[in-house]
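Objective 1.3, modelling of assemblies. Example input:
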Amino acid sequence: MPLLATLRQRLFRWQSDGTAPTRLGQRRVFILPTRAGLLFAVALVVMLIGAINYTLALGHALVFLLAGLGLNGMVHTFRNLHGLVITPGRCEPVFAGEMAHFPLRLGNERATPRLGLKLEAAPGAGATRADIAGGEMQRVNLPLPAERRGWLVLPRVRLWTRYPLGLFRAWSYLQPEMRCLVYPAPLASPLPEATPTLRGGEHGSDGGEEDFAGFRLRQPADSPRHVAWKASARNPSRPLLVKQFAGGAQVELRLDWDLTNPNLPTETRLSLLTGWVLAADALGACYALRLPGSDIPIGSGEQHRRRCLETLALAIP
Amino acid sequence: MSTQAKEALDHAATPWLFLAAVATVAPHFAHQPAWLSIAVALTFAWGGWLWRQDRRLPGRWLLALLVAGGCAAILAEFHTLFGRDAGVALLVMLMALKLLELKSRRDAIVIAFLGYFLLLTHYFYSQSIFTGLWLLTALWLVTATLMRVHGGPAATARGVLRHAAVLAAQSLPFMLALYLLFPRIPGPLWGLPQDAHAGRTGLSDAMTPGSIADLALSGEIAFRVLFDGALPPPSKRYWRGPVLETFDGRTWRPYPGVTPRPRLTLLSPPIAYQTTLEGHNQRWLLALDAPSALPDDAVLSGTLTANARQPIVNRQRFSFSSVLDYRFNVDEAQPVRQRNLALPGNNPRSVDLARRWRAENPAPQALIDKALDLFAREFFYTLQPPLLGENGIDEFLFTSKRGFCEHFAAAFVVLMRSAGLPARVVTGYQGGEQNPVDGYLVVRQSDAHAWAEVWLAERGWVRVDPTAAVSPSRIETGIANALPAGEPLPALLQIRADWLVTLRYRWEAINNAWNQQVLGFDRERQRNLLARFGLPDADWRDLALILGITTAILLAASLAWALSHRPHRDPAMRLWQKALRRLARKQIHCAPWETPLALAARVNSERPELAAPLTEVVNAYLLARYSAAGNDLKTLRAAIARLP
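Predicted structure (tokens):
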């Protein structure tokens, strides 16, 4: 099997397609008969022998028409892939253990539809089906299990089709430059104790969001994290209330690598830190993250969270 | 290359498979045992109901039981599972039962392949133009079904049917090339089952009262003849079949032993013609009386019947020459003369009558005339003669006096033998009708005939047709005019309206052309075709080479079609592409994500000298492509022309 795998790798030499749209040319589309195709060939031989034996003139014609159908079926199967335009999209980060989705846009510039296309990112990852109407574009998400944190690079994608007759399978390998950032799997644990720090200018906060100043009615643009659920629950008939801050942190968290149990494996410690980041973010708290080799100053909000998670995903402690 | 072992079939694909199954199975209902047709129809209905109710399909055990039951029933009906009819019945049953097992894509493929295979079996029964057309339609439907199965729910009925039609149309040149160039192997490759060619009508080698009258009810074509020269007159068109010499009182049969080679003296120039004989499962070839030159693979029997070495099971062409005036066995061997005088003892009155005639005047010609005169005076020619008992000839001659040609021929031979003249019955066909459209003489089963042959010293065997004495118009103009109105003739022959007759002639000429040119395309025709293209002595290797080259060219044409890429059908888009090609020559490349306006902005900063003409093009393009008002391509074209 390794020999076969090597041979396959050599034969279908792959190189990155980059991030630009790729059009499948004839050199990239391979084609072989399927098992059904071989069965079809055998059936044709049997039918031909029957037609000769019973001297059926129309039997000859039928066998020859079916042979032509098979050959043209091959061309049509090839054509189903040929000229397809594949444009890589942008991947959303996921947590380890989840499914990463690699979006690809398949463009059909022909007037006739391309049906029964299947894409598979890795053997066993499950095939994604695509049928593109004439002149249309379709977005497919290739699922790939994200097992470990860090960059998950999209492996070579196999794109294949058996349409129209199932006698041949045409396939092509795609290698778009796509990667998905995988955050460490979060581990839930109690947050470390908040270090009450003096409100000051040292961390550069503009003081706009930290001090609780009261409630106001929720507006669609407000984050659900800022909803005062308890206060709102007291009077369900009223619209939701949002906590308003008027600068000055009441809680400031320092999420430090050294706060985690040094006896635990590195990955578990990173997972614990990830859990803390998520918990702190859910609280709407301000937090700083410190890892060996990187230090993220205190902050909050979507941008900050993303930055922290990225650092955790790519950390090399 | 991993494959999913079982891909589920989508629910909406099932009606397609039913359609394919019905289209390929239904024509077999015409000749199958009724119970099988009913069982198959019920299975279809059951499967359809299960599908509509979305019920579970029957389990594996029940299906195995059904298959076993079906096989047993077929075995009971045909006493075999092989052979033509039993094999077809088996395939039909399997197709019906497979519809109860539609779960995965693989099941659907099995249905489609079974369908393709079933199409072939229809040709056992008919190869007419209509069968060809129907089967082309069925092939289209089965192919569309395969496409629907692989295209999934996104495949629309219209799209799939259209695509299947395109595919089939593209396959026709392949079919034509293969049909003309594939080396033809004359069949059969091995012994055919007993029932391979069952159910053919035609003359048989035994004649009883009524056997030819039965044939006369069939308008089926027995053979077609194309004469090299002029057509012989109707009264000379006797097509010689088996000669019947032994008579057991009721049935006439050929002499089973060996007869010496015939000796023929030609008295007129031979006329050449080509006969296209329908398969009749017998060896005789029905040459015009009397054949002087035979095709290579035929032999002449001692009674002057042209025979093939093998029974004729398929339509086949033969070239003959015949002479209309001849002397046949002037010196006939004594044993032959002797056996043509033998009579069973069950017709004493006829024997008495003939002996009395002989006592009056023993001259052979006088005896013949006496008999013919009797027929002409008192007898009627009819397709529905009364049934005859044990002393058939006596009853016919003295009581019923009504009969068809076999009655007259038999009675005449009995009278002649009783009078001491060697005589025998000759069966075959008489007459034929020329189709003015293609010039072929068409001889039908209804032209089947029986006449007599008498041996006279110095003259040999002489043909005497007693029917001609009763009904001269039978010989001159054919059976349709000879019979009184109300006789149950084939409908085809009763048509008298001119335009209908013309229509029939045309239709039969088309059928003949189909038979001759399409179905009759054999090794010889293939050789002639290649000779016409400058390859007179092509053997199978040359054929394989030519075929390979032709197929490669056709495949290349198909591939060229597949690779041809017409990127945009929108004319404005096409013009924009043209403008981009021009810019590319100036080293300005439009990135795939760059909009026309973005490109214009970039060019404005990078290559200011091109900015003005490009901006003009971009504006014209955007207007032509997106503006609601006018699709003004002229402006765009002019703007592109102004690009440096």
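Chain B touches chain A through 69 residues (CB under 8 Å).
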